[in-house]
Amino acid sequence: SVYSCSLFWRATVQSCVSSVVFPVKKIDEFAFSASTFQKCNRKEPDFDECVLTAAQGGLAQLTHPVKEISFSGLEPVEILELKIEAGHQTVAVDQNFKNCKLYGLSKTRLSKFRFDFDRNGVDVAGFIPEIKKVCEYELDGKVLLLPIKGEGTSTVILRDINSTLTTSFEETKKDGETYMKFKNTKFAFDPGFVSFNFENLFNGDKELGDNINKVLNDNWQDVFQDVKSGYEQALSLVAEGIINQFFTKLSAEDVFD
């Protein structure tokens, strides 16, 4: 999805992720409204189960463009710029990506989606069969002590992902209704498999490029572990942007009885 606001949505953090920038895009389609979202009663004993069902259903609806909340759908999520800084052991290279597309988030199978109104927090857990990240990349550094340099198209695929998300929210009143703004979102995940493909390494030297890609894939666990926190922070920003775009337009009264 492209995050659509009047301005570019920019978020920065201090450590592994330098920046994530989402583009502006006009949304012409309409696939969702408050009336199509399952409402849940906070006072009912099955509230948590209802929220989980509603969230899974809402996720399916957000696969498509949503004019009402200026959201162009989860397939794909588009990111203009993404920078993941060098790791501390095997990955001694800053990863600069642009014009990224993330595929697969809409396939998330939620196992928990719990609102805690006493502490203004939300806890989420789920399984994602696959996330595919396709970006233009620029690299110049070392991985596993081997030089890596180039620019072109990159594809990173993560499979069998167990994930959790925690976030907190503040409530504000507007026109007599309550709106929630989410912050401090933390997305954590463990993939069962990761593959890398960087095209046009070393100015298109196929033999060198194939060798480096093979080394990356043969050692994917060590390589990914070193930059995992950067990917987690990037996806935390993506998730927070999606949640806030949803709840900017829909009040608590729209989704809860």
UniProtKB/TrEMBL annotation:
Family statement: Belongs to the TO family.
SMART domains for this protein: JHBP
InterPro entries the record matches: Haemolymph_juvenile_hormone-bd (IPR010562), To_sf (IPR038606)
Keywords attached to this entry: Biological rhythms, Signal
Entry superkingdom: Eukaryota
PANTHER family in alphabetical order: CIRCADIAN CLOCK-CONTROLLED PROTEIN DAYWAKE-RELATED, PROTEIN TAKEOUT-LIKE PROTEIN
GO (cellular component) term, any one: extracellular space
Provenance organism: Asbolus verrucosus
Transit peptide recorded as keyword: no
Protein's recorded name: JHBP domain containing protein
A single GO BP: circadian rhythm
Pfam families recorded: JHBP
